[in-house]
Design goal:
Layout (H helix, E strand, L loop, with lengths): L4 H9 L4 E5 L8 H11 L3 E5 L24 E4 L3 H14 L3 E4 L6 H9 L3 E3 L4 H4 L6
Parallel strand pairs: 1-2, 1-3, 3-4, 4-5
Helix pairs in contact: 3-4
Amino acid sequence: MYGDEATIRKILTESGDTWAVVGLSTNPSRAAYGVARVLQRFGKRVVPVHPKAETVHGEPGYASLAEIPFPVDVVDVFVNSDLAGAVADEAVAKGAKAVWFQLDVVDEDAYARTRAQGVDMVMDRCPAIEIPRLDR
């Protein structure tokens, strides 16, 4: 397991409320769409990051993390594992406080690199599942 309960809680409650969601598009059948909506319900600002740079859930999108013209607290990654490491590296370069790889997104080398930079990281978990558990 990559990311213990303390790290999950810290990311969800202390790392900040601006979440870049990489892979978020206007397609409601994709997991990112529903997860972003849950994050919004829990007070997070969701910033869509997708090559199409579409507006999703009322928030303007950007084609890449580098194009976002303001600080991002957490980068939530909905891309294939083989692409996720590069996104984690971009998140660190952007100054994100945390990186969150969604369910089935695993890159152990990216995890090690990200943690070595002092950035919190969770892998193979879903914030939409974890955030409602905080009150338990």
